[in-house]
User: What shape does this take?
Amino acid sequence: MSRNCRFTAAVHVCAVLANHPESDVTSDYVASSLNTNPVVVRRLLASLAQAGLVASKRGSGGGYRLAKAAARIDLAAIAAAVEDDDGPAFSPNPTNPTCPIARNIKPVIAEAIARAEAARMSELGKVSLADVMEKLPV
Amino acid sequence: MSRNCRFTAAVHVCAVLANHPESDVTSDYVASSLNTNPVVVRRLLASLAQAGLVASKRGSGGGYRLAKAAARIDLAAIAAAVEDDDGPAFSPNPTNPTCPIARNIKPVIAEAIARAEAARMSELGKVSLADVMEKLPV
DNA sequence: CTATTCGTAACAAATTGAGTTACGAAAGGA
DNA sequence: TCCTTTCGTAACTCAATTTGTTACGAATAG
Assistant: This one.
């Protein structure tokens, strides 16, 4: 796979859980909806659980469910849960210390990117999981 | 390297060109500022040239220069030039057609992501290369 | 006690980005 | 004309990442 599918997959996972509000859903079931391996789903759900978005129960009859109402989970929270948050992607190479541009540009770029990322997250924050479910003909 | 450094590197490249408005700059020179290989820089500059942001000249005395004034180049244009624009990253796996969530969720997610990406680009569009240069102590 | 299910480690396969080498094409100067 | 410089681009290697897979221990219900 080329790019990071974690965010889109995580939204899909959450939607499946939101569609079964009364019962726990197994990773096998979610995996069959995504047509992937249960372990891939459990890894995603581990991130979502750490962020407090889902709860899990082990053992027979166990599985996953949303930890809050779908209306109180937004796409920004899901993105924050499953995306890297290591700041902007600079080359790991040390830039040339004798070049005045190279010496000073990183924080300038980082600030602009941080603002853009904040705008993206703000937009994702306007869409709740309940909004997503409403648009599905289910 | 872990994540995509193309955008941050491209801004750095453009800043170096903006710092030499009167002359062509060789890929060797830019590469030494970024502490990387000239071919890596030329690949970046090829994308920027295709977007009409820089111009190149071959041969002795040749090199690269900005194709417009730094005030008329913004970070959104640089990002658009060097980033993939294949839309949101879905898993290449076909999702389960018997699951109503899986059957219908992709366009809903895609629309939300498109709006978020537009917000990010709008924010990047507010920062011109000239703004970046002003913040550098050069 | 057994079956189920999560949690997680370990590993293979595929993909990607960066770096590198190489070489042809273009352009200027002697 | 010939040589040097420099871009344009293809081909390759290397390292890192993601996904998929197997495996197994821990927890839980019946």
Remarks:
- DSSP finds six helices and two strands in chain A.
- Residues 6-134 of chain A form a domain with the Arc Repressor Mutant, subunit A fold (CATH 1.10.10.10).
